[in-house]
Amino acid sequence: MAVNLMADIENAIEDVVRKRFAGVNIVRVDVEEGEDHDGDRVFFVNVVFDADIKDLDASRLSSITRHLRTRLFDMGEDRFPYTRFVSKADFEGAAA
Questions:
Q1: What SS3 class is residue 24?
Q2: Using CA atoms, how far apart are residues 91 and 96, in angstroms rounded to an integer?
Q3: Distance of CA 57 to the CA centre of its chain
Q4: pLDDT, tens digit, 9 for 90 and up, residues 41-89
Q5: What percent helix, strand, coil does the chain show, rounded to 5?
Q6: Taking the CA of residue 43 as centre, how many other CA atoms within 13 Å lie in the half-sphere pointing to its CB?
Q7: What is the pTM of this model?
Q8: What are the backbone dihedrals phi and psi of residue 52, each rounded to the nearest 5 degrees, phi first?
Q9: Measured in Å, how far apart are the chain's first and last C-alpha atoms?
Q10: 74 contacts: CB under 8 Å, gap ≥ 6
């Protein structure tokens, strides 16, 4: 994929995440291209947040894929975004 297009996709995904979770300290949003278990091309989205899990609105968590897909479709992109939310503490612990 062209570098500029991937950068646009990363920016769009991050924008949607930050807007949907405006009241939460989002530390970073990482987007990687990959394949799912069926071999379909997808995006793996890791959202690192600095808050208690109870601070994340369950309805926003459950609807994030729909909002991401809408934005991606608007860009002509049909790959599915697999989204994972991980606390900053867990993220840093996994990196150690």
A1: coil
A2: 9
A3: 15
A4: 999 999 999 988 888 889 999 999 999 999 999 999 999 999 999 999 8
A5: 50, 30, 25
A6: 24
A7: 0.89
A8: -80, 150
A9: 31
A10: none
